[in-house]
Amino acid sequence: MEEKLNRNVDSAKCRLPIYTLRMLNGKVYVVTSPDLVNAINRNSKVLAFNPFIAQLGKRITGHDEATSQIVQHNLNGENVPGYVTEIHDATVSTLAPGMALEQMTKTMLLEASACLQALDNDNVIDLFAWVKHMMTLCSTKAIYGPENPFNRDERLIKAFWDFDQDLNTLIADLAPSFLAPKGNHARSELGLAFQRYFDQYSPKQTQSAAVIEARYSINTQYGVSSWNQGRLEVGVLLGILANTIPAIFYMLVHIFSDPDLLRDIREEINATSVSFVDGKTTCYLRILTMREKCVLLHSTFLELLRVHALGSSVRYVREDILLQDQYLLKKGMVVQMPMAVMHSDAPAWGADVKDFQARRFLKQGNDPKEFKTNSTAYRPFGGGASLCPGRHFVTLEAMALAAYSVLLFDVVPAEGKWKIPRQKQESMATNVFPPEEDIKVRFSKRPGYEHINWDFVMT
Q1: Each residue of 208-222: pLDDT tens digit?
Q2: 453-457 and 282-286 beta bridge pairing
Q3: Strands 18-23 and 26-31
Q4: Residue of 160, 183, 289, 407 with fewest CB within 10 Å of its CB?
Q5: What share of the chain is helix, strand, coil (3-state, %, to 5)?
């Protein structure tokens, strides 16, 4: 199936590598050239992301002024590490490939497996609503452990998505209790729930992931109160849920809506990542090697992010800088690198740039296990010093859940033909926007797979 992309920005009209937008309070430099993006990445001390954490963090989470001072102190780690640099480095190390990541992934999959197995034959569901509910519970339990606030009170699931929907208004910070009452109330509810979580936090008893243990340790070291830890965690939830869940939704839609792609992915998974034992009553799904062995599934994931990641990377200009000896960026201004432009750039991606092509990232040649990608023009996880530290977990989540789903189920529209819904922009902090409308689908277990016991092997 081919899908014509709906872009807010038509890259064919963006022929210049950089534009200047004059605003009331300064300038915004909009960069559309992959070469200039490389130059920006090489100058991460001058063109920095961290200042946005200080500027927008309080507006997003609502933490107090004392915590803002902690966040802003030594923001870029010029002399010794500051709060932000310590949190970033700890997040990168605890979410890197290794035992901690493997445990998080397996916990998430075991929880998701229970949700999927609970579906009866011919269940008709609203797909995005179901993915939101399932993945909010499963991902947060994998990260925060059994005491996860969402598992204690599932009403918080709705609260998070109310918060996410009102985030732009909350960031504006103009009378949020009047202009964004649902989002403002939801933020408070979430903050209090996580305050209670951290009031009772004990690394061994709570059984949280290493990333939460590291965050708790650093917050305690810097004297951040449990109330403010709860508020800060509301911002972390955006990274855990807001992009991942729409991505998984579109991953499932693209695969199940294309019969040829569905067939080929099933064959690939069965050939490379599945082992049946006990007379085919137990199935082991091997997870960690999927990126290397399930090359079509991986290419599909990469392509859905190219198509559906439409946000923007931002940098703050800390000092005047001349890029490529010709583009002067002035101190105090903002740089934006819109993904929609990069991901729809015909010179980078070819004449079929507006089509969804699941095999786009498969290298043509003698070695089908290698991928082709224009790494600078491909920015769903950002780039440079601010490359998303959660990208490994997201990739494993999406690929493993898709693999398990296509093996276990047939999924068809409840009525009519498949329609891939357009996206709507709800939040400045989101790159993969949610669908404008949900779609009703029918889940049916595949013949022969009804009574199989599943397990997930981290190899």
Answers
A1: 999 999 999 999 999
A2: parallel
A3: antiparallel
A4: 289
A5: 50, 15, 35
**Contact, 350 vs 364, CB < 8 A?**
no
pLDDT at residue 365 is higher than 70: no
> Is it the case that residue 426 has pLDDT exceeding 50?
yes
Rounded to an integer, the average pLDDT of 263-291 is: 93
Q: Is 365 left (phi over 0), alpha (psi -120 to 50) or beta?
A: left
Going by their DSSP bridges, the two strands 440-445 and 409-413 should be labelled as: antiparallel
Contacts 24+ apart (CB under 8 A), 367-375: 368/295, 369/292, 369/293, 369/295, 371/295, 371/298, 371/299, 371/302, 373/302, 374/34, 374/348, 374/349
| CB-based contact 247:139 (threshold 8 Å) | no
Residue 337: CA atoms inside 13 Å, Cβ hemisphere, count? 28
CA distances from 189 to 141, 155, 182, 185, 251 (A): 18, 10, 10, 6, 31
Query: Could you tell me which of 295, 302, 315, 360 has the C-alpha nearest to residue 52?
Result: 315
pLDDT at 364: 66
pLDDT digits (tens, 9 = 90+) for 23-41: 888 899 999 998 899 999 9
CA dist., res. 389 & res. 385, Å (int): 10
In tens, the pLDDT along 102-130 reads 999 999 999 999 999 998 788 899 999 99
Q: Is the dihedral of CA 387, 435, 267, 296 positive or negative?
A: negative
CB atoms within 10 A of CB 388: 18
* % of the chain residues with pLDDT over 70: 95
The vertex-29 CA angle with 429 and 12, nearest 5°, equals 90
Closest CA to 397 of 290, 313, 296: 290
Q: Greatest CA span in the chain, whole angstroms? A: 70
